[in-house]
């Protein structure tokens, strides 16, 4: 029976069991995550939400990141994890430990473990990105045992550089929105552990910071980025309402995610409110994007052609969210918030050709806005699980037998909550070199 963890727009995370034959919900168990001293309501802005879950790469530990908007620093809470090693074990259990502490920044929205182990100390580093104040915090965990405490953590906190010195501020008049300059929304280590990419949507840049591959830490919290890539696109926001929101809130092109091609020669950048993906050359050793200044090699829409070229889409807001490379395909999710009119809630899948070009897209239509999803393969069957928000409130399971086929819906598990993050419960083990780990995202029977 497939098992998944989910995080949601409240102070809870969930363990979900679905029927392997039809994808329907068998059981969901929700776990409270972090303290809520101010009794904040769920969801942003200004509320409480568990936005990301990270599965430790070598020990049975899950780190949950809970945000309080701009009210308090975000919270890191740890859960020990048993069972589910093959993702079909029905006896998966989570045990909340007493291990919890502040992440030093506000609105923790993403995190990633370093791909290498510090052999001298036996630790692996977790980088946590904060959307509201441009901080990236680095926590160090043992690779062989559950930690005793989070004392003296984070080990280091990096404050992102200002592209234009003296511009540090909060956009818009409502600080609960947390649109700060700088801002960090995504972190990704190089496979060698020699640098880290940090996506700053509010300054419209991708920073490359040098990292000590032995420790997973930047050399200094005051170190300047090795490279700063300025993101640009002429693609407009889709529809008059999206354009109006962007102008009122002072939004730029808002890069959100970055992913690397299977051969390591190209990167894909997604733009949240412009609904496009760009392809660039990259120096895989240094992390410099577009090192030869050749410019954007390709720009494609994340949406269906008919929606992009629709003269009137009504009162709706369209945004892309997650970006993932799996095997030789690129996946991007779309979130259409529609009051009336048209929008697209989907996962768009592209084949990656030689030269990094994207081709042969097909659309996987989903029941609601897709913030996150996971992709896996067993034998020849690829499985795509999408976590949706209202009105879907579900995990939807799709499968295909080869990359040349389109995904087909096989089942829906109505979990009753908006899903922020969803990933398999199966734990991954490694000895010395750690591949990029899988990020995880009241009890009731279905």
From TrEMBL:
<dbReference type="InterPro" id="IPR015943">
    <property type="entry name" value="WD40/YVTN_repeat-like_dom_sf"/>
</dbReference>
<dbReference type="InterPro" id="IPR050282">
    <property type="entry name" value="Cycloisomerase_2"/>
</dbReference>
<dbReference type="InterPro" id="IPR019405">
    <property type="entry name" value="Lactonase_7-beta_prop"/>
</dbReference>
<protein>
    <submittedName>
        <fullName>Uncharacterized protein</fullName>
    </submittedName>
</protein>
<dbReference type="GO" id="GO:0017057">
    <property type="term" value="F:6-phosphogluconolactonase activity"/>
</dbReference>
<comment type="similarity">
    <text>Belongs to the cycloisomerase 2 family.</text>
</comment>
<dbReference type="Pfam" id="PF10282">
    <property type="entry name" value="Lactonase"/>
</dbReference>
């Amino acid at each position: 029976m497939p098992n998944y963890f989910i995080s949601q727009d409240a102070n809870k995370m969930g363990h979900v069991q679905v029927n392997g034959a039809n994808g329907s919900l068998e059981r969901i168990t929700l776990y409270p995550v972090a303290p809520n001293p101010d009794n904040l309501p769920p969801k942003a802005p200004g509320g409480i939400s568990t936005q990301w879950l990270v599965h430790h790469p070598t020990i049975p530990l899950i780190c949950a990141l809970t945000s309080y908007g701009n009210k308090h620093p975000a919270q890191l809470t740890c859960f020990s994890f048993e069972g589910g090693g093959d993702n079909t074990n029905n006896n998966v259990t989570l045990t909340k430990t007493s291990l919890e502490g502040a992440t030093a920044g506000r609105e923790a929205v993403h995190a990633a473990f370093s791909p290498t182990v510090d052999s001298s100390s036996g630790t692996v580093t977790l980088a946590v990105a904060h959307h509201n104040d441009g901080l990236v915090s680095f926590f160090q965990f043992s690779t062989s045992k559950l930690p005793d405490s989070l004392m003296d953590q984070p080990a280091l906190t990096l404050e992102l550089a200002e592209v234009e010195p003296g511009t540090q501020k909060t956009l818009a008049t409502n600080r609960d929105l947390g649109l700060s300059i700088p801002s960090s929304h995504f972190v990704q280590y190089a496979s060698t552990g020699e640098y880290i990419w940090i996506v700053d949507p509010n300054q419209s840049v991708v920073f490359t910071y040098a990292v000590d591959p032995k420790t997973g830490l930047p050399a200094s919290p005051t170190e300047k980025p090795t490279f700063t890539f300025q993101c640009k696109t002429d693609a407009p926001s889709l529809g008059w309402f999206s354009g109006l929101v962007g102008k009122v809130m002072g939004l730029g092109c808002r890069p959100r995610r970055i992913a690397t091609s299977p051969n390591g020669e190209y990167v894909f950048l997604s733009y949240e409110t412009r609904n496009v993906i760009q392809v660039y050359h990259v120096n895989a050793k240094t992390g410099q994007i577009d090192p030869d200044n050749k410019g954007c090699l390709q720009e494609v829409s994340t949406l269906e052609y008919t929606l992009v070229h629709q003269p009137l889409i009504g009162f709706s807001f369209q945004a892309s969210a997650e970006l993932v490379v799996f095997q030789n395909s690129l996946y991007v999710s779309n979130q259409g918030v529609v009051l009336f009119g048209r929008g697209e809630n989907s996962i768009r899948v592209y084949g990656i050709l030689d030269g990094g070009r994207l081709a042969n897209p097909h659309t996987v239509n989903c029941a609601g806005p897709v913030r996150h999803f996971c992709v896996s393969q067993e034998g020849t069957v690829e499985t795509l699980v999408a976590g949706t928000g209202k009105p879907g409130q579900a995990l939807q399971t799709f499968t295909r037998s080869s990359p040349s086929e389109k995904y087909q819906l096989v089942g829906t598990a109505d979990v009753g909550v908006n899903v922020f993050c969803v990933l398999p419960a199966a734990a991954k083990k490694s000895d010395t070199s750690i591949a990029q780990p899988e990020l995880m995202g009241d009890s009731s029977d279905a």
